[in-house]
Every structure is written in C-alpha cells, then in structure tokens.
C-alpha cells in the first residue's frame, strides 16, 4: 500500500484468506468452482496433480495462482490474463477472416508425444502453450480475437489458473446457480437480492424465513444483519430443513449467533397470545397467553438448546431431509452431503464435499475476525424470552423460499406473525402457487401492495466494436410475490367515524 | 426512522404513529406519498379529507378513513374513502421521493447492493447523489456502523438530498458533499478505504482511475450508464486496474392475477355466462362464494402489458490484487 488505509478501525470484510476459513476456488475462469476449507491437510486436485492449499494462507482474495512443480504458486502480474487483452485497440484494422480455414486436423505439428516429452523435461505450462502456438500453421491467419481464444483454450489445458475468491452471498449464489441450481430451487442471485430488498433486510431486523433452499437465504440474511438483529428460520413438521450452505459463508461468531431455528407450530402458538391485532386496549396486553410449557417442550425437540461446542454441530446440526419430493430434485439432491465442490464430472474432487472434511467453519479457526473465542452454533432454538418478544413485537419482515411447496397456507400462517406494515417476499420457481397465494391475500385483505415480479437479467460482452449480449443467457431466475402486511381495521377504527352502525362494524371487523 | 440505528427504534407492532413521524400514505400501488404527521395537519386527496390527528396513536400499517364530508367529487359515501399508513422503507421511499433527477429503481438497486457485496460496517463512495434513491438503500446496507460518502456537483441538489436524509434519520450514515468527481476525483482522504464505489456519471471513465485508488484490494466498483457507448469507454478504462469486469442489464416483468374461468371448448355457449376473462376490474370474490359449480373457476396470471424497457447498464469490476505481492499496490494511473 502506498499509504495505509485511514480510519475504519476494523475492515468488516476480510480481504485475505486465513487458516480455517472457507474459500471459493475458481479454476480456469469458471470452468470449475469449488468451496474449500483451509485446513492444514486440504488439497485440490488439478488435472492429475493434488495440490496443497497451504500456499493460499494469508493471500488476498482475488489472487491468482498457477500450478508449479511443487504445487500452487502465486501468479506474477505479467502472467495474469487480462480482460479483452490483446484484442483491444486492434479491432478497427482487423482484416483477417476465416476464408482460408480448413478443418482437416493438420494444422498442429506438435504431437502429443512431443508435449509429453516437454512435460518430462520440466517445461512450464506456459512454455508448452508457446510451443503449440509456434507449431500451429494456422495461428497467424486467425483474427486477433480467435488467437486470444486459442491461447486461452490451450492455457486452460496446460497451464491452469486458480483464482482465490471470497465466499459471499454473491459468489455463493452464483456458484450454486451455475453448477447446482436445483439445490437452491433455481434462485438466481438477482432474485435473491431483490427479495432481500423487498423484505427490507438490514441491521437490527427480525427476519422470519422459510428456507428450503439449503440455507442460502438464511446465510444471505445473516450477512446483511452483520451480527445485529435476528433471523428465525422456521420449518414445517418436526425436522428442520437443512441450512448447511451457511457453512460456506465466513460468518463470524456474532453473526452466527443471530440465526435461530424454530418449528412453525411453535411460532404459530405466538399468534394467539400477546399480539392480538384487533384488541383496542392495544399495547398493554400482557402476553400471559404464551403457552410456556408447550413452548418449552417443543423447544427441546429439534435440537439441543444449549450453545454447545463445535463438535456437536456437525452431528446435531441439520439432519438433511429432503422434505418433499420436489419435482426438480435431481439425483444430487438426495445425497446427504453438501455439494461443496459442486462440479459434477470430476469425482476426484468430491472428497471435499463430504461433511467430514469441512468442520463447521463458524466455530473454529476463524478467530482472526471473530469476537468471541468460541462461536455458538447456528440455528439453535430461540429462548422463550425471544419468542415472547417476537410474539409481542412481530417480525420485521418475512422471506419464504420453498420452491417445492404450496405456499398459500404457509403464508396465511406466517403473515400474522409480522409486525404491522412489515414487508414480505415469497419466492417460487412456479408462477401458479404465487398467483393463488396472491389472490387469497387480496381476498383476505391481509396485505397490500401485492405484486408478482420476475427479474430478467442479461449479461453483455463489451469489447471495442464488438459489444452485444452474451450468446447464451439464463432465461429464468424465479418469481417473487411481494407485499406489505397491514393492520386490519378494528372496532375503534369504525367508531372513530362516528357512524358505525352495528352492521358496518362487524363488516369491518370481518375484513 | 427509516433505517434503525439501534434495536430500540425499529418499527414493531408496538410502535404507534406519533407527531413528527414520516408515514407513507398508500392510496393504491401506483399512488403513494410521504407525509410528516403533525397534529394540525390535514391530507386531502381523491379519497377525501384526512386529519392527521386521527392517525396519532395508531399502528403503522393501519387503514384510516376520511373524516365526514368528503371534499368534493369522488362521489363516495361520506367517510368511505380510506388509505393505509405505512412505515417508510427505502423501497417505499424510492416510490415517493421527489425526482430531481432520473433515479434508480428497485431492480437495479438490489443488484448493485448485492454485487458491491455491501454488509453492515462497509464504507461506500457514490457519485452523483441525484435524488438519493440508491443512497438510501446503500445506507441501509452499511448501517449501523458503516458510512456512505456521496458526492454531487450540483449545490442545490446536494442540499435537497441532505435535507431528505436528515428527515429520514439517515444523517449519521450518509455524508453529502459538493464535488465534481469527474473533474477532481474522490478526496484523497478516502484513498484505500472504500469497500465499494458506485458511479452514475455521464463520463464515468474520467472518475474510474480515482475510484481505483479509493478501493481496498478486491473491492468492487459499479458504473451505471444508460448508453452502451458510455459502457464501452468505461470498460476500456477499467481494464488497466480492474478485473472481473462484467456488464448487466436487469429488468422486471410483473404479472397480473385474476380469478376466472376459461370457456370450455365442449360446452355450448349458453352456459358460459360465468366466464370472465379479465377485461374490466371485477369485484374480488371472497373464498366462499366461488363461481357457480359447473364452472371450474381458477386463478390465472399473465404478464402486465407495459413495463420499463430500459434503465441502464450496470458494469461491475473488481480492484485487481497486485501480483499478490504486497508493496506493489496503487499502480493505477491517476488521471
């Protein structure tokens, strides 16, 4: 640094990899994307080589590595691939084209034996690429753009590059969406971002979430809470849905401690208690109705309520159960393990996927940026006091992501748990369940500002004289139903008008 | 309090509307306005006359009726008009703020916040401030301890934005300054201190080198431009000290939902009187009184016919990590 960055006592975003942290490795420009835990024994298999991840320690996120004779080596500035590189500036005088290109497989005079020999003699990947270019009879006739393309293709094969990325909502969602979309219910990153906005997620929020997309939503909310507020992940039935994706985030202990899990039945019992919306007397209502015993007993069920040591987590954490036969479920989904390395065709890397390999990130090792020495487990049951608070004050917003479920009845159960004027966002991969849900909310008048939205995202290639949308694009990232919960008019409201006949009053109440 | 700065001032079901609060008066999804509540205040709209005094002590999210003797037209029964009083959020603010410039809407805003990887505590630089639509969402993303430094070269606009932020309780999160970022770059004091930089400028390429100097390593820059030619030039400039340069366009498609039944292809026309494909607005039926039993009524959806066709291109880029060798930082050309 030319000068030390002033102010901002603590950089909130860790900018370099540390022992025990979760990292995302982007191998060959998105060809392979895999999450790893930087434990002392962790390795990545690249080609036929198993490389230790130790060289990544202390390196800034965004660093590029190549495979040297002894494993991963940081790339120097000059061997970084540059976006658009050589093509820049030469676009205008390009006159070459493919008129003389004949696809007869004789252009390359270097044989695979020659290449093997070079490798044995210790030639670097870059040297091999250079040799391939020198021995290609057609290379010189290619346009600058196809020369670049050729180089890149050969480079990927003989001189693979590994980019160290920081896992964040953006990179985690993009990675899953690209490689494993069914696991997250086909929720694209722009859809997820839109929901976080629509649900007004920010510091000190009390977010109620139904996350059946593996923990992507809960993790994203926890990231936005930044160690303040709470996110309560609720689930149908007695078994919590898996939120294991939160292990990919480098949530520190404070952030992790803000994540709770509670069965819907427990939350629904709050509804009948303190927060009676229609009560005229209002705020003074004593929430004596909170059924302490039932709360207590059901609290014990899902998992240990204690903040326990890290060990317990991997076992108790989330018994992974695919709750319903989701139509889109593919075979990968049924496996209990987390698709950490989510590249399908290369089974050799799969060991990193297995739970055993990744111990809970949040509880160990990341003392670098965590405040408490020992992190609490994510997804513990909320205390009775917390439940009581939510019952009286309501949640500040709701996010539902249950792409394989009917949502109408769930939403009808959950909306009363929100504070008045609280926004909500319901995700679905199908339109119809949201349309039905929206219609029933219109009828019940529980919410206003109802809207079904589908984001459309298009990426562009931007190059001198060659800008256009990408030839391939993703055409669907999911639907969102959004709205705002409102306070139903109460008898007082009718009285204020001073013209409330009994009939109008009861009508208003029933609205 | 649009963005809570401590756990006590967030809106909950216990909060009641009091003097001085800002409420968003919701008439219809396309008709809302921000109102500061004062005991003597009166709101008059097509739904009638509303006395603020009637609102005091109510919950946010309440439905309130106009006081007797509706002002003029409307033709409704006296006191029949109603509106909802909502707690302000950055999303609602975007819909009610006064447009001093073109503004960013929710789709672009949420993609920007996500791709800039903003979390509580971040420091973000923005230029120009414009009407403060994005700024408000940036403030929510970095609250409670982060900071948004926003710059506009237009004196009066900066003042108006500052007033808005003050009114919305965002002053401790947002600093507004008057500065020509294209001409002068960002102030040196933020050098190497920004987690993210957002540019909405007519000639973003002039400010990009400075943005590079401000960013921490691996920090993200976003440039918003309506025209592809601007994007083109911005991208060329970015290539010198940014990587991972990506340009997007995001649009929203909205859907309308109706309850209705399609004509059966086999039944003759006489019996299809219950058919009601949406043409005019129909009264929404309550769940009980469905259409007559011979008709299978169902909820149907279709995309709305009109939509925003273009807002702008969003280009994101990451500050390069210099060769992973410490010391080799800041090689961005500074002009």
Describe this structure in words.
The complex is a heterodimer of chains A (511) and B (335). With 511 residues, chain A is of the alpha/beta class. Chain A contains 15 helices and 15 strands. In chain A, 27% of the residues lie in helices and 17% in strands. In chain A, a hairpin with a 2-residue loop joins strand 3 and strand 4 (49-52). The N and C termini of chain A lie far apart (63 Å). Chain B is of the alpha/beta class and 335 residues long. In chain B, the strands form 3 sheets. Chain B has an 8-stranded mixed β-sheet. The longest helix of chain B is centred in the middle third of the chain and has 13 residues, at 155-167. Chain B is globular, with a radius of gyration of 25 Å. At the A-B interface, helix 5, helix 6, helix 13, strand 13 and strand 15 of A face strand 5, strand 6, helix 2, helix 3 and strand 11 of B.
Please give the structural blueprint.
The complex is a heterodimer of chains A (511) and B (335).
Chain A: E1 22-27, E2 32-37, E3 43-46, E4 49-52, E5 64-68, E6 71-74, H1 112-120, H2 125-134, H3 144-158, E7 161-165, H4 169-179, H5 189-198, E8 206-211, H6 216-225, E9 230-235, H7 253-256, E10 259-263, H8 264-271, H9 292-300, H10 310-316, H11 384-393, E11 397-401, H12 408-414, E12 423-428, H13 431-444, E13 447-461, E14 468-469, E15 479-485, H14 491-496, H15 502-510
Parallel strand pairs in A: 8-9, 8-11, 9-10, 11-12
Antiparallel strand pairs in A: 1-2, 1-7, 3-4, 5-6, 5-7, 12-15, 13-14, 13-15
Chain B: E1 22-28, E2 31-36, E3 42-45, E4 48-51, E5 62-65, E6 82-86, H1 90-96, H2 106-115, E7 123-127, H3 133-142, E8 147-152, H4 155-167, E9 174-178, H5 181-184, E10 194-199, H6 208-214, E11 215-225, H7 228-238, E12 242-260, E13 298-303, E14 313-319
Parallel strand pairs in B: 7-8, 7-10, 8-9, 10-11
Antiparallel strand pairs in B: 1-2, 1-6, 3-4, 5-6, 11-14, 12-13, 12-14
């Amino acid at each position: 640094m030319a000068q030390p960055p002033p102010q901002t006592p603590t950089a909130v975003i860790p900018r370099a990899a540390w022992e025990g942290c979760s990292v995302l490795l982007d191998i060959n420009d998105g060809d392979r994307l895999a999450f790893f835990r930087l434990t002392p024994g962790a390795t990545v298999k690249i080609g036929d080589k198993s490389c230790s991840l130790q060289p990544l320690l202390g390196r800034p996120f965004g660093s590029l590595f190549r495979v040297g004779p002894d494993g991963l080596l940081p790339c120097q500035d000059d061997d970084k691939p540059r976006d658009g590189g050589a093509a820049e500036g030469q676009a205008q005088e390009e006159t070459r084209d493919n008129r003389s290109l004949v696809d007869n497989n004789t252009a390359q005079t270097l044989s695979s034996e020659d290449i093997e020999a070079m490798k044995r003699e210790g030639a670097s990947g870059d040297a091999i690429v250079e040799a391939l270019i020198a021995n290609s009879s057609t290379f010189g006739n290619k346009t600058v753009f196809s020369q670049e393309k050729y180089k890149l293709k050969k480079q990927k094969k003989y001189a693979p590059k590994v980019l160290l990325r920081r896992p964040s909502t953006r990179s985690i969602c993009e990675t899953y969406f690209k490689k494993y979309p069914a696991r997250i219910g086909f929720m694209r990153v722009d859809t997820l971002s839109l929901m976080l906005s629509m649900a007004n997620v920010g510091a000190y929020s009390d977010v109620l979430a139904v996350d059946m997309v593996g923990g992507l939503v809960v993790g994203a909310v926890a990231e936005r809470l930044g160690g303040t507020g709470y996110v309560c992940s609720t689930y149908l039935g007695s078994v919590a849905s898996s939120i294991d994706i939160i292990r990919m985030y480098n949530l520190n202990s404070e952030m992790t401690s803000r994540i709770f899990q509670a069965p819907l039945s427990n939350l629904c019992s709050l509804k009948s208690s303190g927060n009676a919306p229609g009560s005229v007397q209002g705020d003074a209502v004593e929430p004596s109705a909170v059924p302490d015993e039932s709360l207590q007993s059901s609290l014990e069920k899902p998992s240990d309520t204690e903040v326990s040591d890290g060990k317990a987590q991997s076992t108790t954490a989330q018994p992974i159960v695919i709750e319903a036969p989701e139509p889109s479920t593919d075979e990968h989904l049924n496996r209990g393990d987390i698709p950490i390395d989510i590249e399908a065709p290369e089974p050799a890397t799969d060991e990193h996927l297995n739970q055993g390999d990744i111990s809970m990130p949040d509880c160990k090792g990341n003392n670098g940026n965590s405040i408490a020495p020992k992190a609490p487990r994510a997804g513990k049951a909320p205390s009775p006091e917390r439940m009581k608070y939510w019952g009286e004050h309501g949640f500040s917003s709701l996010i539902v992501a249950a792409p394989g479920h009917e949502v109408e009845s769930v939403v009808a159960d959950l909306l009363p748990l929100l504070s008045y004027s609280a926004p909500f966002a319901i995700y679905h991969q199908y339109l119809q369940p949201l349309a039905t849900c929206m219609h029933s909310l219109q009828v019940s008048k529980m919410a206003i500002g109802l809207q079904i939205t589908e984001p459309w995202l298009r990426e562009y290639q931007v190059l001198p004289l060659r800008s256009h949308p990408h030839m391939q694009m993703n055409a669907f990232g999911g639907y969102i139903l959004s709205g705002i919960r409102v306070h139903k008019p109460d008898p007082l409201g009718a009285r204020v008008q001073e013209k409330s006949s009994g009939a109008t009053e009861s009508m208003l109440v029933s609205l | 309090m649009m963005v809570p700065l401590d756990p006590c001032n967030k809106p909950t079901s216990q909060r009641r509307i009091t003097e001085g609060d800002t409420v968003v008066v919701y008439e219809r999804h396309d008709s809302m306005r921000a109102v500061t509540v004062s005991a003597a205040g009166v709101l008059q709209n097509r739904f009638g006359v509303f006395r603020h005094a009637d609102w005091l002590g109510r919950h946010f999210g309440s439905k309130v009726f106009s006081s007797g003797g509706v002002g003029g037209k409307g033709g409704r029964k006296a006191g029949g008009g109603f509106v909802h009083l909502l707690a302000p959020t950055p999303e609602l603010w975007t819909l009610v703020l006064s447009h001093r410039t073109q503004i960013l809407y929710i789709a672009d805003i949420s993609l920007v916040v996500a791709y800039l990887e903003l979390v509580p505590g971040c420091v973000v630089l923005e230029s120009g401030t414009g009407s403060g639509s994005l700024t408000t969402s940036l403030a929510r993303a970095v609250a409670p301890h982060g900071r948004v430094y926003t710059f506009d070269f237009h004196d009066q606009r900066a003042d108006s934005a500052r007033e808005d932020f003050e009114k919305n309780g965002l002053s401790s999160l947002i600093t507004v300054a008057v500065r020509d970022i294209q001409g002068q770059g960002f102030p040196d004091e933020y050098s190497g201190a920004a987690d993210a930089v957002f540019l909405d400028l007519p000639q973003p390429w002039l400010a990009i080198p400075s943005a590079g100097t401000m960013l921490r390593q691996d920090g993200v820059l976003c440039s918003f431009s309506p025209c592809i030619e601007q994007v083109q030039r911005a991208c060329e400039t970015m290539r010198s000290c940014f990587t991972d340069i990506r340009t997007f366009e995001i649009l929203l498609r909205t859907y309308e939902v109706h309850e209705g039944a399609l004509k059966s292809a086999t039944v003759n026309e006489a019996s299809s009187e219950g058919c009601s494909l949406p043409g005019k607005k129909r009264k929404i039926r309550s769940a009980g009184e469905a259409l007559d039993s011979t008709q299978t009524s169902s909820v149907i959806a279709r995309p709305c016919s009109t939509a925003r066709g273009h807002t702008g291109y969003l280009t994101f880029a990451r500050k390069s990590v210099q060769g992973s060798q410490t010391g080799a930082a800041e090689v961005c050309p500074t002009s």
